[in-house]
Amino acid sequence: MRKIAIIGGGLAGFHAAFSLQQAGDYEVTVYTNRTAEQLRNGRMLSMAAPFRWVLERESSLGINFWEDVDARAEGFDMHIKDPGGSGKDLFRLTGRFPDGLYALGVDYRLKFSTWMDEWERRGGKLVVRDIAVTDLEEIAAASDLTLVVTGRGPLSQIFDKDEERSTHHLPPLPSAAIFLVGPRVASHQPWDDVPFSPLRFDILPGVGDVFSWPFYTAAGVCRGFAFQSTVPGGPFDAGRDRKTAAAYLEFAREATEKLIPDNAFLYEDAVIPDEGAWLYGPTEPMVRCPVKQLDNGAWVWGMGDAAMIQDPYAGQSGNNAVRMTDRYVRHILERGDAAYDPDWMQSVWDEHWDQYGQFAFRFCTLLQDAPNKALMSIQMAATRDPAIAQAFVGWFGYPPSAWPYIEDEQAAKRFIADHATPAPAMGAAV
Ligand SMILES: Cc1cc2nc3c(=O)[nH]c(=O)nc-3n(C[C@H](O)[C@H](O)[C@H](O)COP(=O)(O)OP(=O)(O)OC[C@H]3O[C@@H](n4cnc5c(N)ncnc54)[C@H](O)[C@@H]3O)c2cc1C
User: Fold this and answer.
1) Where is the Styrene monooxygenase StyA putative substrate binding domain (predicted)?
2) Residue-wise pLDDT tens digits, 206-224
3) How far does residue 408's CA lie from ligand 1's centre (Å)?
4) Which of 47, 109, 328 to mutate to test the pocket of ligand 1 (most atoms within 8 A of CB)?
């Protein structure tokens, strides 16, 4: 049996572990740095709203324990606010996802602790230890393959930055997030004028953005609010001074009342489900070189956020991490008894980059930067025509589908024409 070590029991690490276990012939050990108990009772470190493709992978592995919870996000409701600070919308783009697409966020503390228990219940080997580089050398020397899937943790920094592929040029932006429960925040349709459960996005030029979406936590359905500041120390960068969830909630409530008054009603009866239900930290988007030889000569392979990290802005990092994992696992299975050598690791990583990763990365960069003419024309058309809005929001489920339209003006014109609501026929009743 081939020995595979997985360092990091998070989203991508457990997708890989359960997939390899399901395939059979592998002795897989997951190393992670917190017990299930510590995870359940601890602080949030990250979060995500995976799209349907990821959730269907989880169902096929028998680890989607939250299939039936009423916390799906069914589309986008984006508001670009007046830069003058009046709180009014400059533009608004509302679109239900096409083709049955949806996203469903489960509190990682609940998700990963449940997966840890399930992994052990299925006979998987789990070691709870914070792995340092010296431990990694030992583990890699004793394993046929070692996957480093430590997310934003410091161990991921063993992989050098790939300067050529890291085309994101904005400085690292501080983000903070909080979960809130209450009758309004947890309702399926909190806004009367949006006829579905939306991912709500408020963009405040020169300040930052807030996105919120339904989540399932140990306390039931709640709403997660992520604040991102485009100005360090600006009105949305309050996370560094707030030391408790209650203090952060106070900031979120005040900032919302002042800058996004149409969301203030959500906070009227909202409470924090527990003291750990918030996070703060900057994200530095980058692509790394995920094939690395350690000092003792052993090779390790980075996966998920350890290989490539994106800004939370476009909600793509976790989705990309699982697409990458799926590809790595398929190649591991196809590899049979052949050696897991560095050329093979590099070719699998390059394949992911060429076919998916580069699109996910550029998608986020293009949306976050001042939009180019092609993207701007599509977004403006989408503010006027719900059919175009629906086609546009569908890109979030599979970013490669945004090409060539997102960068090419002629292609953008075609996209608009192809997706526009047909004009009523002459003489037809309106
Ligand atoms: C505010 C915010 C909002 C986000 N929103 C979205 C979204 O909407 N959609 C989306 O797709 N993505 C989103 N993301 C990103 C998403 O959460 C990550 O991309 C995803 O979790 C990456 O999976 P991973 O397995 O690589 O890392 P993680 O899921 O972070 O797992 C890493 C694991 O490794 C463990 N670990 C770390 N260091 C060590 C060590 N030294 N030894 C042992 N174990 C270790 C950690 O405890 C953790 O369990 C968001 C992130 C943030 C911060």
Assistant:
1) 151-262
2) 888 999 999 999 999 999 9
3) 33
4) 47
